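Researcher: I'm preparing a figure for a lab meeting and need a structural model of a single chain. I don't have an experimental structure, so a prediction will have to do for now. The sequence is pasted below. Please return the structure as tokens so I can convert it later.
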Amino acid sequence: MNILIWHVHGSWLTSLVQGPHTYLLPTTPDRGHDGLGRARTWTWPGSARERTPAQLRGSDIDLVVLQRPHEIELTQEWTGRRPGHDIPAVYVEHNSPHGTAVDTPHPLARRTDIHLVHVTHFNRLMWDNGRAPTSVIEHGIIDPGPLWTGTEERAAVVVNEPVRRGRTTGTDLLPAFAASAPLDIFGMATDGLPRHVDLPPGRCRSFDLPQHELHRAMARCRVYLHPVRWTSLGLSLLEAMFLGMPVVALGTTEVHEAVPPDAGVVSNRPEILADGLRRFLTDPGAAAAAGARARAAARDRYGVERFLDDWDRLLKEVTR
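Model: Understood. Here is the structure written out token by token.
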């Protein structure tokens, strides 16, 4: 198939474009949010092809994968075709609802012509999906390999924009966790984070690394810490498990589904998580054993082959 899809979430899309289709990526001169084109920090196959809005109008498109509400109008403006009417469409919901979970209607809740795909079962449960046909396709991760060494007695945290997002990403919890384990924070817009949370450089370091360096840097840390209060299931958490890292995580959203009890420590009590950090830092053997179980669980549930198979089944059904 020829699939129109915007480059919105690079890590997720990196897995999707491994499939057997041609992926048409809108590209604008400024490479802004609506025209980012091909990734520059991930390796994508040649089947992921850039198209300008003018080129899209004349392109053969079998299906559009939407990820933001305004892409419905963009599709009609740039292709001349209405998603759900003139062209089959699915909408991927990457996030948990930002408002009151039980009362927040999804933007597609009143539509029956666009299939709504959630990336976690928690998300589908929390959104008010209304009349929209829904399904869940869980994440799929390209296996980076068992890179964990744990040579540095530090905890890795991966989060983008932790200062702006604050309590959502658990930024306020970092000082207490740093008392149990020195932290290495990886992600975009992490500059100034140690100063923001009033931690000395030795207890909190921040890094904004390209994707090809990130995994090895994470894997040098003894343990992975996931302090996020409210978001969808973080791909970085799953990537840490694929690396073979033991996990210490808040038991929010879908985390308890992804992390089995013997792969780390999952709790909503910060003192229990702090104990877990200290235990893994002082017991490399326990860290290695939990990390191996985390990797096995992640490979079993979140492999890219299963992800692509699930997507192919859905695409065939929607375009049937």
